[in-house]
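quick one, 594 residues, struct below
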Amino acid sequence: PRSNAHILYRLLFIASLLYLMLIHIVLLIYFGLGYELTLERVRHGLMVFFGSKPIHDLTIYFPLVVLPLIMVFAPLLKRLFKRVMRNKGMSRLGILFVSLMLIYAVFPQQNRILKDAPFVGVSQPLRTLAKDAMFKERPQHAPTGKVYTPPAQVPLSQDAYGIKHVALIILESVSSEAVNHQVNGEYVVAPFLQSLKDKAVVFGDSITVIPGTSKSLISMLCGIYPFVSHFAFESLTVPGTCLPKLLNEHQFDSVFFRASTEYFDNHSGIHRQTGFKEVVSPEKLLSDNQDVTYTSFAGVDERDVLPKMSSWLNKRKNGKTFATLLTNVSHAPYALPKDIPEVRLADAEMYNKYLNTVKFSDGILERIFDVYKKQGLFDDALFVIIGDHGESFGEHSQYGHLYSVYQNTISVPLVIYNERLKLALKTPVSDAFYSGVDVLPTIADALNIQHEYKVGYSVLSPLPERLIFSSEITSQLSASVIDGDRKFIHYFGFKRDDYFDLATDPREMVNRIDQLSEEEIAYYKNAIHEWKHNVQHDFDAHFKATLGSDYYMKWSTESLPCTFKDIMVADALNASPKEWLRKCKVTSDRHHGH
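---
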């Protein structure tokens, strides 16, 4: 008869195999198809699967590296120790000791590419075959021959509006739905932003190209579609001339103010590549020994940054300035500063916390306007206010923002404000959906700066009819196209595609895919494939030319001194945010040779 220990061993062995299969399924779904596996990619996939809970590295290495090794060597070790020790108890201790040594030997190598790990390397051909099978749809013409061709670029106007200062205010995780939230018929979440509506040049909705801050920064600052990948290769190199660099060439001083750490997702690299002359971040405040209030491990209270903005502007009153500010508090975990009481804005607890942080950000926006007024710069300043992405709270079974292309995740407010510009415009601006790639050409147009741009349009001129594209961050799960009020979501074979009429169904509750003809479905699918293929192809060529053919290997945890996983673990361990931010800065400076 089998002993209880033997049965337990068999059960553990089966459980381990099932866990190993789960890991591979997660990788196949989220990040593994056809790509080499990195620890960072595996970690992000698991965090999404398990609801963004901290994932310890050992939970990755045990099933992918240690477990397969033990499974291979355990029978050999068992025979070896039986012969040497001739004692069953000592034999088991020996196997345990060797297993622990394997863990000890493998665990420190956590920044290595996982492609050579047992089972992972074996599965690579299978994953490649799976990718080829699931993504065999290459861009093809629709059966009717109808193919989407982007409309020609509209020439920028030659009008000068006397604007000397540009303020680009990026609201972290703020959706159009949030700023339009009402209680008893009143805009209680963003009352200041709503007060700008009548005097704003533009007050509408913009569609985020990819719902992640790093990617949104690239689309807004560079006027291009970002690389559709979880990894911000753009922090290493960016094609073309981005807005800060362009304005620097026209005698503007540029600065990026941020309440969140500049080292998360290598944002510091994005600042360098886009051309900002100066960055003011929590790390800068720490180095200046300024007292700050930490709201989370991602950053500080925005009110701590505003004195720096006021001082910076005061020194440049007689010049021209381009100041960008990225807020922080409205990012998960939606933590208000301790001196701000939480009020009831929604029934759902987490959504209520989120709306309270958006309300706080609205107050910060009003303070920024006051800073420009006190410095005497308000009349000559162009304010561009935009969300980087929205947020999901269970709608369509989605949470967070990275992996969704529904409206609550990709539709963000866009407000352009300058009263003199409002009066000077001879034609009304379009009330259609805008795109994040429109920010650069719009600012260039307002400043009468001629610039060759590829995909965006100035919203100060009548917009042509166009398709507006968006993708979740992996490029493998879903992508959407908006055509007027028609929205089509393509799932690349994972499930049935969606079609919504946003005019009558803005919350995307009813899938009307059956109302589209086969030709219309093919047209939208082909447009999405063509768009994604062109973006990836152009970036792939640029990255290979600038970083080398092995550029994917250059993005490892060594390039990410402060990752989301680090933030979550530090938060769980209740570590000192001040020390954590110092660690981020030291690690990043060492990596970049500063």
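The two ends are 67 Å apart (CA to CA).
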